[in-house]
Structure formats: structure tokens, C-alpha cells
Amino acid sequence: MNDGMDIGRVVLAKAGRDKGKHFVIVGRMDENYVLIANGKSRSIDKPKKKKIKHLEAKPHVLYNVREKILSGQKVFDAELRKSLEALGYEK
């Protein structure tokens, strides 16, 4: 599955209640669904299941978050928020 929707990728929600908000992919369900979180409206402990077709991939990947998730380490909501803010995605 090389569609650019990898763990750690910053995405923009194009549909639904979250439309216009930026998230980080924190999990992959199958070829149609991913789990997204932003540390604010969606915590890393309760990520949102979202259809890939409703997301727009951004050029940034949070490699620090990706490495932690893939190695099974705990990721904190504050890390997601700070990373998104540092890239200028969230206020």
C-alpha cells in the first residue's frame, strides 16, 4: 500500500465533522481506513477511524511520532499538538 497514507503523515480532513482540520495518521486499518489523531479534538488514545478518500495527504511526515508508534513507545497528545503547531498547521 504505497498511497502516501503512512503512519506519521500529516493529513487534512476533507469531509465530515472534522473538515478543515489537520491530523496525524497514527494507525492503518486496511487499504480504505486509517486512524487519525491531533492531540486536541482527537486524542492518541481514542483516534478517529477515517476513510482515506476523505483525507488529503500533506507533504510533512512526523518522523519522531512515526518511529515511536512503530517501535511501540507511548506517544503523548502534547507531542502531536506541538509537532502540528511547529509546522504551522494548528493555532
Question: Can you describe this structure?
Answer:
By secondary structure, this protein is of the alpha+beta class. 20% of the residues lie in helices and 31% in strands. It has a 5-stranded antiparallel β-sheet, covered by helices on one side. The radius of gyration is 12 Å and the shape is globular. It starts with 8 loop residues before the first strand and ends in a 5-residue tail after the last helix.
Main sheet properties: 5 strands, antiparallel
Strand order of the largest sheet: 4-3-2-1-5
Number of strands: 5
Number of helices: 2
Through-space gap between termini: 32 Å
Class inferred from helices and paired strands = alpha+beta
Give me the Rg, rounded.
12 Å
Which ranges are low-confidence, i.e. pLDDT below 50, for 5 or more consecutive residues? none
Order of helices and strands: EEEEEHH
- The best one-word shape is globular
Average pLDDT: 94
Approximately what portion of the residues adopt beta-strand conformation?
25-35%
Q: Portion of residues in helices?
A: 10-25%
Could you outline the blueprint of secondary structure elements for this entry?
Blueprint lengths: L8 E5 L8 E7 L4 E5 L10 E4 L3 E7 L1 H8 L6 H10 L5
Antiparallel strand pairs: 1-2, 1-5, 2-3, 3-4
Keywords:
20% helix, single chain, 5 strands, 91 residues, 2 helices, five-stranded antiparallel sheet, alpha+beta
Short description:
The protein is an alpha+beta fold and 91 residues long. The chain contains two helices and five strands.
